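Figure S4 source data
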Amino acid sequence: MYDENQCNPTITRTVNTIAYRYGIRGTPHRWFTSYLSGRQQMVIFNGFTSSSGAISCGVPQG
């Protein structure tokens, strides 16, 4: 079982660590942070579409 409260801080900490290591500051740092926060998802299966829900952890794929 995962602890939802631990997911977002972990991703944020990872992004901040990588950004610091590679000198990513200002606008590019804000872009990465906004890309990984406030995301939504829904499922379409057999012609049925679920309602949209907030993604609280994970990293976008693709």
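Figure S5 source data
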Amino acid sequence: MMEFLYFPEDKTEYIPAFIMLVIFMIGAIAAMMYFYKKSKKEEKLFEARYMSQDFSEEKFSSEQKKQLEASDPYKEKIRREPY
């Protein structure tokens, strides 16, 4: 019966595996840093585009508020079934 784990007698066989591990770890860290910087850039763009606008309800007239409430599908009560 063959052994489940293979541990070579010549330890130089571990060198290529270690090199591949280091290469993939560097690639993973580089990808993580890229996504982190990209998300920070998008966050600044989002804040510049949307946070400067005033979305308060005071800008709407009473008629506009009624229209918004009538067209809002989430205002309806959700009927829940008993457990």
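DSSP finds two helices and no strands in the chain. Residues 4 and 14 are 17 Å apart (CA to CA).
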